[in-house]
Amino acid sequence: MNVLFIGYGRMGGALGDAWLRGGLVSHLNIVDPGLTPDPEQRRYAHLEEVPAERAFDLIVLAVKPAYASAALAGLNDRQCSQAVVVSVAAGVTERTLSNAVGQRSPVVRAMPNTPVLVGAGCTGLYASERLDTARRAIISGLFEAVGSAYWVAEEGLLDAVTAISGSGPAYYHLFSEALAEAGIKLGLDPQLARDLAAQTAFGAATLQHQPHANFTDLRIAVTSPNGTTAAAIDVFETQAKLRELVEAATYAAHRRSVELSNES
C-alpha cells in the first residue's frame, strides 16, 4: 500500500508508526508543513518533492483544520487517481474535503482519540457511498490496529462521537486528577495517590471490556449496602448531580463540534 501522510504530528505519527510496526504498510511518504526535511533520513519532504507521477492508495490528512483544504488542493490528478483520503482534521466536513480534493478521491472522516498513541484508541469513521466495501474494510483494519473502530451512518453522528470518545479521555483524566487530589487530602503520599487512581481506572476499564460486561451490574457488584462505596455513590447520585454534569458536559462538547463543522 502506497501511503502519503500530510501532517505527521502526534496523531499522524501514532497512526503511521503503528501501521509500519504492524506490517500494514511497508513505506510512508511523509509531508509535514511544520517540519524541516531531514537531509539524512529523508523521512520528511515538502509536497513538491513527492513524485508527481506517483499514485497513492491512501492519503492521510493530519494537519490543523485551517490548513486542510489548501493541503488537499496541492495534490495532482495522478496522486489522487486511486487514493482514499482519510482526514483526522476535526470539524472539517466531508463536502469541504471532497471539494478541496476536486472530487477525485472518496473521503473518509476519522475521529480517533489520544489513546491511539498506546494502541488503545477509539475511532469513529464516516464515508459517503463513494467508498466501496473493499476499501472500507481496509480502512477499518488500519484503525483497528490502534484500538477499536466504529462506522457511523450519518456524518452528523461524528459530533456525538467527538463528545463521547473524542473528548472523553480528558473527562476520565479529570476524574482521576480529582480522585488523586482527594487521596492527598486524606493523607496519602502524592505519588501513591496518583498510582492508586491510575491503576483503579485501568482495572475498571479492563472489567468494562470483558465480554457482555454491563456498566450498571459492575457498579452494583462493588456497592455493598450501607458500605463505603455506597456512601460515595450516594453523594454522586444525590439529585443525579454526576449524571447531570456528564450530560451537560457532553452536550457542550457536541455543540462545539457542530459549530466547528459549520465553520468549515
UniProtKB/TrEMBL annotation:
Keywords: Amino-acid biosynthesis, Cytoplasm, NADP, Oxidoreductase, Proline biosynthesis. Pfam families: F420_oxidored, P5CR_dimer. It comes from the Bacteria. NADP(+) binds at I6, G7, Y8, G9, R10, M11, A62, V63, K64, P65. Residues 155-260 form the Pyrroline-5-carboxylate reductase dimerisation domain. It catalyses: L-proline + NAD(+) = (S)-1-pyrroline-5-carboxylate + NADH + 2 H(+); L-proline + NADP(+) = (S)-1-pyrroline-5-carboxylate + NADPH + 2 H(+). GO terms for molecular function: pyrroline-5-carboxylate reductase activity. Its main location: cytoplasm. GO terms for biological process: L-proline biosynthetic process. Pathway: Amino-acid biosynthesis; L-proline biosynthesis; L-proline from L-glutamate 5-semialdehyde: step 1/1. The keyword NADP applies. Its EC number is 1.5.1.2. Belongs to the pyrroline-5-carboxylate reductase family. Catalyzes the reduction of 1-pyrroline-5-carboxylate (PCA) to L-proline. This is Pyrroline-5-carboxylate reductase. It comes from Pseudomonas putida (Arthrobacter siderocapsulatus). The gene is proC.
